[in-house]
Design a protein that fits this description.
It contains 12 helices and 11 strands. By secondary structure, the protein is α+β, with helices and mostly antiparallel strands. It has 2 domains: 2-166, Ribosomal Protein S5, domain 2; 197-344, 2-Layer Sandwich (Alpha-Beta Plaits). The strands form 2 sheets. Strands 1, 2, 3, 4, 5, 6 and 7 form a 7-stranded mixed sheet that branches. A 4-stranded antiparallel sheet has the order 9-10-8-11. Helix 11 packs antiparallel against helix 12. It starts with a strand and ends in a 10-residue tail after the last strand. The relative contact order is 0.17. The protein binds (3R)-3-hydroxy-3-methyl-5-(phosphonooxy)pentanoic acid.
Length: 345
């Protein structure tokens, strides 16, 4: 039996703009996880069992775009045909997850990453179980379901480290790069995958609206608006990018007051991109009224999660205010200094 798991993730700054080459900051949420367990089985083929999602499918019969089947295909693409025949059979892969679906916590990426890593380890392919390899293969699965993912979700859940991330548009999305340039945005930051320092531990509350909102739709809507008015949206993306850069410095300096301000500002820009919602705005306002240092939606938006920056003194009041304003759940996480040793390969 072989088991692997991957955490949820939350974006602190830069969602949506990250698709267009701007920096973003994201951290793992280890309290919620996806787990894959591989067990040898008497049957031919691979049975994919995900009771949490009401799924029980055979790999070779499922559509290649089925999320679980796609993860197996991603790993299979790295094996020779002989290896596939020999090893991709007589297995049951059981997948479970405590990460709420379509909520901005990276559920799909974490499930794919856990499955790919477990299968790689089970087949004795440690080279395909490294964070970099799992991340690259998980990205291929994300592409099926999200169209134009930036790559930040697969990166955070595979490395299980906070990251400052800038995608490489030149290789991943040359069409976006070209249109950014022709519409006047040319000074993009260089691609980056870097850990970041935290000068002082920060406490975040993650409030879930209870509204499942597919990222693909909000990403598609932003794209349509960008195509219709590129200069305006380029300016919004660039402003989000500057906020992510400033946030990185504020995190390193332990400057929570600035960090909070940057969260309000980032939320306002996301509202302009039309990816907030009445539910998200209500939670952000409730957090502000209850004394949070900052709050914003997180992830694709239109539902899903928001985050609030709190202190030991304000945490209980903000939590209460979020629940009163309609949050279905509130998770607390502390982003500490010791977590951030570096990005293990
Ligand atoms: O909804 P989530 O948390 O999976 O976040 C998506 C983040 C976006 O920036 C909106 C899309 C992307 O691919 O980065």
């Amino acid at each position: 039996m072989t088991t692997a798991s991957a955490p949820g993730k939350i974006i602190l700054f830069g969602e949506h703009a990250v698709v267009y080459g701007q920096p973003a900051i994201a951290v793992p949420v280890p309290q919620v996880r996806a787990t894959a367990v591989i067990t040898p089985a008497p049957h031919a083929g691979i049975l994919l069992a995900a009771a949490d999602f009401g799924q029980n499918v055979w790999w070779h019969k499922a559509s290649p775009t089925h999320p679980l089947a796609a993860a197996v295909h991603a790993l299979a693409s790295q094996l020779t045909l002989a290896e596939q025949d020999q090893s991709l059979s007589h297995l049951t892969i059981t997948v479970s997850s405590t990460i709420p679906v379509a909520s901005g916590l990276g559920s799909g990426a974490a499930i794919a990453a856990a499955l790919i890593r477990a299968l790689a380890l089970h087949l004795g392919r440690a080279d395909l179980a490294t964070p970099a390899a799992v991340s690259a293969l998980t990205y291929e699965v994300e592409r099926i379901h999200h169209g134009t993912p930036s790559g930040i979700d697969n990166t955070v859940v595979s490395y299980e480290q906070p990251v400052y991330f800038v995608r490489d548009l030149a290789t991943a999305a040359p069409d976006i790069l070209e249109r950014l340039h022709t519409t006047g945005l040319s000074d993009l930051p260089a691609p980056a995958l870097e850990p970041f320092a935290v000068g002082q531990p920060i406490t975040l509350l993650i409030g879930y609206t209870g509204v499942a909102a597919p990222t693909k739709e909000s990403v598609g809507d932003v794209r349509r608006q960008w195509l219709a008015d590129a200069p305006a949206f380029n300016a919004l993306f660039a402003a989000c990018g500057r906020i992510a850069q400033q946030a990185r410095h504020a995190l390193a300096a332990g400057d929570t007051a600035s960090l909070g301000r940057l969260m309000w500002d980032n939320h306002a820009l996301l509202q302009e991109m039309t990816v907030s919602s009445a539910e998200l705005d209500a939670l952000v306002v409730a957090a502000r009224t209850a004394g949070a240092l900052g709050a914003k939606l997180s992830g694709g938006g239109r539902g899903g999660n928001m985050i609030a920056l709190v202190t030991a003194e304000t945490s209980a009041a903000v939590r209460h205010a979020l629940l009163t304003a309609g949050a279905h759940t509130v998770l607390e996480m502390v982003l500490g200094r010791d977590w951030l040793s570096g990005l293990a390969e």
